[in-house]
Amino acid sequence: MNGVFIKDSGPLSKRIEKDFKIGADEIYPLIKTALKQVRVPEANSRPIWQPVLERLKMTYEDFFKYWFGGESLNEELLQYTKELRQQGYRIIILSNNFPERTNNYRQLYPELFREIDEQYFSWETGNIKPNPESYTQIIEKHDYLPNEYLYFDDSEENLASAQKLGINVRLYQNLQDTKKFISTLQNV
Predict the structure, then answer these.
(1) DSSP 3-state assignment of 128?
(2) Distance CA 178, CA 89 (A)
(3) Of 69, 71, 138, 177, which has the maximum CB count within 10 A?
(4) 73-186 architecture in CATH?
(5) What do you get for the CA distance between the two ends of the chain, in Å?
(6) What is the Cα–Cα distance from 50 to 44, expressed in whole angstroms?
């Protein structure tokens, strides 16, 4: 989702560095450690985020308000998604997001979730990209062969993992590149 359907104002650690004068090299490891723990089912998030909150001297609620305040929905991609669905494409989200972020998106962007056929969030499934099970859980649920999927991601590591399974992959760069790429597939 992030980097594709959700645009952000840059890495959170860089925003914190600018706004709070705490080095990205100091805060990033704290955030990264927390993210590894909250992306699994039934994680108790509040204590996991505590080291980050203490360092920033922020409440749990204020931290996420700050974080998510730097994000917005990619409206142009949402419109293109509607067009693709009208053409018969199924749209599936596979995301390593955690409960607070997912619930924020579900609340703020219900129009996105109306245009998605299925969604797989690591904190709900227990499968974290680039683990191959993240992709095979989807393949095994449907009657499509791996090469009948087209997977976009902004992470080369995630793309490589999916590609090893026979899934067609494409690095998400922008909407224009995506449209051009899909049109070449439609003309084959």
Answers:
(1) coil
(2) 14
(3) 138
(4) 3-Layer(aba) Sandwich (3.40)
(5) 28
(6) 11
Indicate the domain borders of the chain.
8-71, 73-186
Bond prior to 99 in cis (omega within 30° of 0): no
- As a whole number of angstroms, the distance between CA 126 and CA 139 comes to 16
> Two tokens at 81?
């998604």
In which band, very low, low, confident or very high, does the pLDDT at 185 lie, cut at 50, 70 and 90? confident
pLDDT at site 188? 59
pLDDT at 186 over 80: no
With beta carbons less than 8 A apart as the criterion, state whether 134 and 149 touch. Answer: no
pLDDT digits (tens, 9 = 90+) for 117-158: 999 999 999 999 999 999 999 999 998 999 999 999 999 999
Reference 120, options 103, 131, 101, 135; nearest CA is 135
